Amino acid sequence: MQVLLSPQQLDLTIKRLAYQLLEDNDNLSDLVFVGIQPRGVQISNRIVDFISEISAEKPSYGLLDITFYRDDIREELHIPKETTLTQSIEGKKVILIDDVLYTGRTIRAALDALQDFGRPQKVMLCVLVNRRFNRELPIQPDFYGIAIDTTASQKVKVDIENNQVVLY
Amino acid sequence: MQLSTKHLLGIKDLLPSDISLILSTAQQFKEVLQRPIKKVPSLRDVTIVNLFYENSTRTRISFELAEKRLSADTINFAASASSVSKGETLLDTVNNILSMKVDMVVMRHSASGAPHFLSKHLPDTAIVNAGDGINEHPTQALLDAFSIIEKLGTLEGKKILLIGDIMHSRVALSNIYLLTKMGAEVMLSGPPTLMPKYMEAALGVKIEYNLKKALAWCDVANVLRIQLERQNQVLFSSLREYNRAYGVTSKLLNEIDKDIVIMHPGPINRGVEIDSDVADSANSVILKQVENGVAVRMAALYLLSGKKELSS
C-alpha cells in the first residue's frame, strides 16, 4: 500500500481546489456544488466547508446519488443513498465533485441525473484523484487534486479514518 | 445488499432486513417524486404486466405510476376485457403473455395463493402480489409501515390497532405479519363475527372488542373497510349499527382525548367505518398513504428487478 496524499497534503489539496474553484468562477451565487454519493461527499463536504470560511456568501450545495442512472444495473443491484439537490440548477454553473475519476461512468451517470433536475448553464468536474489512462468514456476533469497512472488491478481509496489517500 | 426473495408474494416470507431495505429504498424514491422530472431510467429494459383479475383503481394506478416512473414498459390486463371470459385458465393466460417476453408480473386475484401457484410455474419471472383473496397484500402493509415511520419515527414498540372486518382482510394479515416482525405491538378490534378464532395464540396479537378501550390503548388506528363484496352472509345487522359500535367517530376520539394517527387503506365508506371529519383531520395520514404507495412500489419493483442472466 502506498500513501498518495498524507493528511497534511490532503488538507492542502482540498484548500487549493477550493481556491481554484473560486478563482475560476467570480460570482458564487451562480454556482451550485454537487457532491456525488457515496464517496465524493466526504471530499465535497470539506471543499464546501472551506469555501464557506473564505468567502462572504454561503455556497449553494447539494448531494446527488446516481444509483438509478448507472449503466451496470443488471450486473449488480446497488442501494441508493440520499439525494438532497433541492435548489434549482436551471441556468446555474454546476460543479460536480467526486473523490476518484477512473472509468468516467459515474460522471456520465451524474450528467444524466442532472438533466432530470434542469438545464444548467455549464457543468464542470472537480475530482481529488484523476486516474489517467483508465478512462472508458471521453470524460476529463476541469479541476483535480492529483493525477496518477494506475493499472486496472490497483485501487485508489480516500481513507477518511486516517485522513489520507492510498493506492493498493 | 439485496432481498432474500425472488418474488414479493407476502410479508410472511420476508425477513425484517428485507422490510428495512424496501422501506429505506422507498425513502430515496420518495425524493425522486419531488424532482422536476419524476423519472429514473432504472427499469427501462423491463416490461411489466399488471395482471388484475379483480377490480382495483387505487392499487392498479399506483403500480402503473410506479412502473412508469421507473421507465418500465407496462401492460394492463383487466380480466373482464380479456379471454378469461372465454374460459382461458390462469396458467394459459400467463404463459401466453410471457411468450411475449414480459419480465415481471404484478398480480391481483380473488383466489388466495394464486401468485404462489404462479411462482411455482414461472420460476424465472419475478411476481409481485397486489392482493390475493383473503391472504395477503404485501405492498399495502409496506406503505402503511412507511407512513407510520414517517409520522412516528419508528415501528419498534409502537401500538397499532387494526379495526374492522379482520376475517376477510388481506390488508390486516399483511400488516399483522409486518408489524410483529418489526417489533410493534398489534391489537385487533371489530365485530366478533368478523374476527377469526385463535388470532392471539397464532399471531401474537391482542384482541379488544370495546372500541373505546382499544383506541385509548393505541398510537395508530388503521381502519379497514367493510367488505360487502366478499360476504355471502350478513355478519352484522346494518351499516348504521356497525357505525354505532365500531365506527371511528370524532365524538369517540374526543372522549379519549389523545392524538392517534388515523390510517385507512381506502376506499373509505364515509359514515360507516370512519366519519368524514376524522378521515379529513390533521391526524389522518390517509392521503399520505396513497402518496407513499407509489414510492414503496417503486422500491419493491426496483429491488426485485435485480440481476438478469445475459441471454446468448
Topology:
The complex is a heterodimer of chains A (168) and B (312).
Chain A: E1 2-5, H1 7-24, E2 31-36, H2 40-54, E3 60-64, E4 93-101, H3 105-115, E5 122-132, E6 143-149, E7 156-159, E8 164-167
Parallel strand pairs in A: 2-3, 2-4, 4-5, 5-6
Antiparallel strand pairs in A: 1-8, 7-8
Chain B: H1 16-32, E1 47-52, H2 58-69, E2 73-78, H3 90-98, E3 104-109, H4 114-121, E4 126-132, H5 138-152, E5 159-163, H6 170-181, E6 185-189, H7 199-203, E7 206-207, H8 211-217, E8 220-223, H9 239-246, H10 250-256, E9 261-263, H11 276-279, H12 286-305
Parallel strand pairs in B: 1-2, 1-3, 3-4, 5-6, 5-8, 6-7, 8-9
Helix pairs in contact in B: 1-5, 1-12, 2-12, 5-6, 5-12
In words, what does this structure look like?
The complex is a heterodimer of chains A (168) and B (312). Chain A is an alpha/beta fold and 168 residues long. Chain A has one domain: Rossmann fold, CATH 3.40.50. Helix content of chain A is 26%, strand content 30%. The two termini of chain B are 27 Å apart. In chain B, strand 3, helix 4 and strand 4 form a beta-alpha-beta unit. Chain B contains twelve helices and nine strands. In chain B, the strands form two sheets. Chain B has a five-stranded parallel beta sheet with strand order 7-6-5-8-9, with helices on both faces. A four-stranded parallel beta sheet of chain B has the order 2-1-3-4, sandwiched between helices.
